[in-house]
Amino acid sequence: MKNKNIFFIEIFITLSLFSVFFTFSSINLASMLGISKHAAEKVIDIIDTFSTVTTIISIITAVIGAGAITAGLVAVAKKMIKKYGKRYATMW
Question: Transmembrane residues, as ranges (predicted)?
């Protein structure tokens, strides 16, 4: 029962982070991660291509407790790719 509660707390935190990141999406992915624009484009391509696998890995790391922020970033990137396209998601 305790593990189930921890799981739901992690999911809540992940969804909360997703909503915060989506609300304040003026942050540039390249500057936030300290990578070049070309590298940011590759990150977006990978997330777009392997979105299901990336989401599963991110959720697993969030449940373990090591990747709630990563899961939030991946979810925001996927949403932005669907809504605005790869070019906008790269500049985010």
Answer: 7-35, 55-77
Q: What local confidence, expressed as pLDDT, does residue 54 receive?
A: 63
Condensed to tens digits (0 to 9), the pLDDT of residues 58-71 reads: 666 666 665 566 66
What are the angstrom distances between the C-alpha of 83 and each of 10, 22, 63, 78, 86?
Answer: 26, 12, 27, 9, 9
Residues 6+ apart with CB under 8 A from 90: 29, 30, 37, 40, 41, 44
Domain that holds residue 14: 2-91
Q: How many domains does the chain have?
A: 1
Assigned token pair, 68 = 């709630």
Pair 3, 60: CB distance under 8 Å? no
pLDDT attached to residue 24:
46
